[in-house]
Every structure is written in C-alpha cells, then in structure tokens.
Amino acid sequence: MTKEYDVVVIGSGPAGYHAAIRCGQLGFSTACIEKWQNKDKKTVFGGTCLNVGCIPSKALLDTSHKFIEAQHDFETHGIKVSAVNIDVPAMIERKDQVVKQLTSGVAGLLSGNKVDTYSGTGKVTSPETVAVSDPEGETLELRAKHIIIAAGSVPIEIPPTPIDQNTIVDSTGALEFQEVPKRLGVIGAGVIGLELGSVWARLGADVVVLEAMEGFLPAVDRQIAKEAAKIFTKQGLQIKLGARVTGSKLSGGKAKKSVTVEYTDSDGEQKATFDKLIVAVGRKPYTEGLFDSSLGIELDERGFIKVDEQCATSIPSIYACGDVVRGPMLAHKGMEEGIMVAERLAGKKAQVNYELVPSVIYTHPEIAWVGKNEEELKAAGIDYNVGVFPFAASGRALAANDSEGMVKIIADAATDRILGCHIIGPSAADLMQQVVIAMEFSASAEDLGLTMFSHPTLSEAVHEAALASLGHAIHIGNRRRRA
Ligand code: FAD
Ligand code: NAD
User: Fold this and answer.
1) Spatial distance between the Cα atoms of 168 and 250, rounded to a whole number of angstroms
2) 307 shares a domain with 273
3) Phi, psi for 262 (deg, rounded to 5)
C-alpha cells in the first residue's frame, strides 16, 4: 500500500519535529517517521535531545546542583540543613518523568499540527518514495513531493574502550547510573564530558577526565577557557590533558566490575582504575541504512549528508538538516534548519544565520558564547575592543553568593559593532542570549551601553561589559584594545 504526502520527514528529533510541525502549519500534508523506542517498546518522539540528550542531562545537572547547594551553599545563607543525602534512583526516576512529559508533548504537537506519525525505520528508496519498516517487520511505502532527512547522530566509539553500557558507557548509559560511582573516569573533556562529569562529581564521585588534546576547550575564548579550567579543578574535576587512551581491561565479578584504563601522556604510560567509565569523544552523523547509495545522495568525508546553506541535498526533492549535516551538533541549530526547510518548501525566503549559532556548556558556572573570540579575530587581522566585567563586582551575583566568572564583549575597533560575547558565570546562557539578539540586529557596544538594564540583575554585567569595551564602565570593568 502506498500513501501520498506533500512532505515526509525522517526523524522526530529537534530538526525533524520542527520541520514537520512547520510543514503542517504551512498547510502541507505531512508525515513524520520515527524509529526510537523506549524501554517499554513504545515509539517515542523528540530524538536524542529529549530522550537521552539536552533534557535528561539538564535534569541531572539541576538535581546535582541543588544537592551541592544544600550541602555547601545553604549554610552561607544561614540555612541549616542536617545530613543531605542523594537518592539516585529517585533522581533518575524524576529525570525519566521529565523526558516522558516532553516526548508525549511532542507527539501531541505533531498530531495537533495534523502531522501523521509512523513508527518504524524510514529508508529513502527513490527521490519521491520512503519505505517504512515497522517494529513488527511490516513495510509500507510513503510517496512524497519532498523528503526531509533529520536522522541525527550517535555517539562515536573508540576501539580501546568498547561500550558495554554497564561499566563502560556512552552518554546514554551515563544518564542511568543507579548509584554514585566511587571512581568515575571520563574520556573526552568536551561538552558531554564536562556536563556529565560535573553531575557525578557533585554527587560525590572522584572524577578523572582524560582528554587527548593538549589544550582545554579549544573552541572557547582562551581567557574564558582558562577561568573554566581553574574553577572546574577547584570543584574537584581532575582534568588530564594530552592523555591518549590506548586500552582498557575489565575486572571484578559480575556485580561489581571495574575498568582499568591505559593511557599515555607527557610522563609516559599510565594506568587508572574506575568503577564506571564514560566515553564522550564526540558524535557522528547517523546515516546507516537511510538510503541506497545508488540514489546519489552525497556524503562528505566525515559522513555528513552534503547540503548547501539552505539544507538542499544533491537531489532536488530531498533536504537534510540537524546533526546529520555539517555545522555544530546543537538542538537549536537543527530546529532553525528544520523551520527554514519547511518555509523554503512553501516558497518563503527563510535563512539560518550560521554566524550567530550560540553555544553553551551547562556546567556551574555555565559557559556561553556567540560570534568571534579574540583568537579568531587576531587570526583574521581584525582590530577590536574588549570589555570585561567580573561577576565579583555584580551586586546581584554577590547577593546570590554566585559570583564566579565574567562577561566579555568584543566589538569592532572601527565600527563598534559587537563581534562576540563570551561568558562564564551564573545564567551565562540566558545572559548571552541578550547579546545574540543585539548582534542579530547588528548592534554596537554603544547601543547596549545606552540600553537601560533593570537593577539589580545579572544582566547588568552584560551592560557593564559593553560600557567597559567603550572605556567607561561604572563599576570595575576593564578594557583592552587591539588596534
Ligand atoms: P536527533 O535528536 O538525533 O534525532 C534524530 C531522530 O531520527 C532520532 O529520534 C532517531 O531515532 C531518528 N531516526 C534516525 N534514523 C531514522 C530512520 N532511518 N527512520 C526513522 N527514524 C530515524 N544540544 C543542545 O543544543 N543543547 C544541549 O544542552 C545538548 N545537550 C546534549 C546532551 C547529551 C548527553 C547529548 C548526547 C546531546 C546533547 N545535545 C545538546 C545535542 C542535541 O541532542 C542534538 O544536537 C540534537 O538532538 C540533534 O537533533 P536532530 O533532530 O538532528 O537529531
Ligand atoms: P565534543 O566534541 O564536545 O568533545 C569530545 C572531546 O573528546 C574533545 O575534546 C576531543 O578532543 C576528545 N577526544 C576525542 N577522542 C579522544 C580520545 N580518543 N581520547 C581522549 N579524548 C578524546 O563531543 P561530546 O562531548 O561527545 O559531545 C558531542 C556533541 O553533542 C557535541 O558536538 C556537542 O555539540 C553536543 N552536545 C551539546 C551540549 C550542549 O550544547 N550543552 C551538551 C552535550 C552535547
């Protein structure tokens, strides 16, 4: 049996469900195919982000942050609590409930926007057809004028540390521990390594992060990365840079296994034993079985589906967006691409501004940035002014006893146009978003400086950083020029 649609979307992660919902809103007859099944063998929508990514990791980050506050911070405020304990299974259960609520919400949004959903694996069989194999093995053909591939990504595995999802886990397994590991190893000091390493460190694990690169957070502005390294080390994360993992050995009985990791660093060969090991060395596009190679959909050298700026593949009826295509693997980038593709199909001139994709690491303090950092501007030979404002001089941050970090704004020396914003500090993600809006409107640092900010807020640190770049912060802020 063949069913006909205007648009068929493969995948219901952030990219896929945004594309499908917008297509529905624009009046296209739309289908969305999803293969993800939960522990109860039920199809669930929302992809990596909702099931095992952004949302569950933030649920655990929020719980573990409250735990740390109760243990160490409340006392500073004069709040006495006795014996703070963590019930790990209850924490995991709450996280699962949040996931359940949101994935059901996406199912509701899809049906509310008249998107037909199909459970099963989609395979593009021609420029206009997709075969869907459902979990029972039945196959159905969908015919569409347009196909949007939003199949997402999966964790990268490395040969020295094969994942068993018990002792050696990927990010998905690291969201399911039923007790706090005494000794936790993390391979990769990237976003996942730092976020999930922080969760378990806050709950009491002794965490060692092994990072192959010599530099810490190479994509982050150097001043911010240096501050982050200092703060995370103070929090107890042991970050070993230049550590190349060469092998691992499991030992111990069935119930209580441990893993010994062999690695080399500048001191030579090393060994470290952990109760759990998280492998977080990046993710790769997921294109397995997605289409016949004879179809002519091109992949790049890293396996991403090749697309242009508007997410069009080499086949006119087929688009691809989200983690399965070039660019940062971020939910919001996929969401905007999904919407852009839907609107383009409706003849609108939608565009994604790839210059302003914000990035966040949800540690505490958070790290957030957008636009260019100092190193990139130096390399490009662009002269700039820098304004830095430390949270230690923010009344609101001090009132909250949360005053580590700084806001840094970089503006073009000639035009004063804001070129980048880099923050480490409380609510960095939300603060940085204000600058993203300003940059989207091509604001100057002076525009931000002339804007009234309510007092007392953390946002005032953004205001003061802008003023600092102009050389007249009212409080401490300091200015540097590179001209
Ligand atoms: P996915 O979310 O991976 O969804 C793809 C969907 O397609 C999946 O549901 C999959 O089952 C389905 N699919 C694949 N192939 C087929 C097929 N053949 N047929 C049918 N269905 C198919 N990003 C952020 O921006 N902020 C964060 O805080 C953040 N935290 C993260 C934390 C963790 C632990 C992880 C792992 C990731 C995190 N990310 C975060 C990244 C974010 O999850 C991804 O960038 C985002 O989910 C990508 O969206 P997507 O729609 O492209 O793909
Ligand atoms: P990542 O690319 O952020 O970090 C991987 C790290 O592992 C890198 O520092 C890399 O040098 C290191 N590495 C690679 N191979 C190694 C090896 N053999 N030994 C030791 N270190 C090694 O990747 P990730 O943390 O796995 O995250 C995957 C993706 O998910 C990222 O692209 C990220 O954008 C996305 N994500 C985003 C968020 C967020 O937005 N807050 C959170 C989690 C994940």
Assistant:
1) 9
2) no
3) -100, 135
- Per-residue pLDDT at 7 exceeds 80: yes
Are 208 and 110 in the same domain?
Answer: no
pLDDT at 80: 96
Alpha carbons within 13 A on the beta-carbon side of 424: 18
How many CB atoms sit inside 10 A of residue 252's CB? 12
Same domain, 149 and 240: no
Q: Are residues 335 and 443 in the same domain?
A: no
Using an 8 Å Cβ cutoff, are 431 and 398 in contact? no
Same domain, 247 and 307: no
Measured by CA distance, the residue closest to atom 12 of ligand 1 is 11
Q: 246 and 126 share a domain?
A: no
CA of 156 to the centre of ligand 2 (A): 9
| Residue 146 CA, ligand 1 centroid: distance in Å | 22
- Closest listed residue to residue 155, CA positions, set 304, 283, 302: 283
| 88 and 188 both lie in a single domain | no
Q: Rounded to an integer, what is the distance from CA 43 to the centroid of its chain?
A: 23
Residues annotated catalytic, as ranges: 455
Report the distance separating Cα 15 and Cα 49, nearest Å. Answer: 10
Q: Is the CB of 127 within 6 Å of ligand 2?
A: no
* pTM, entire model: 0.97
What would the two tokens of residue 329 be? 């693997």
482 band by pLDDT with thresholds 50, 70 and 90: low
- Domain boundary residue, one of 257, 281, 305: 281
- State the distance from the centre of ligand 1 to the C-alpha of 330, rounded, in angstroms: 8
Same-domain pairing of 198 and 139: no
62, 170, 263, 281: residue to mutate for ligand 2 pocket, most atoms within 8 A of CB: 281
Give the model confidence (pLDDT) of 245-274 as tens digits.
999 999 987 667 999 999 999 999 999 999
- Could you give the maximum distance between any two Cα atoms of the chain, in Å? 71
Note the ligand closest to the C-alpha atom of 159: 2
Minimum-distance ligand 2 atom for the alpha carbon of 171: 26
Any atom of ligand 2 within 6 Å of the Cβ of 140: no
Nearest CA to ligand 2 atom 3: 190
pLDDT band at 477 (very low <50, low <70, confident <90, very high): low
Pocket test for ligand 1, best of 21, 33, 54 (most atoms within 8 A of CB): 54
Length of the chain as a residue count: 483
pLDDT band at residue 139 using 50, 70 and 90 as cut-offs: very high
pLDDT per position as a tens digit, 430-469: 999 999 999 999 999 999 999 999 999 999 999 999 999 9
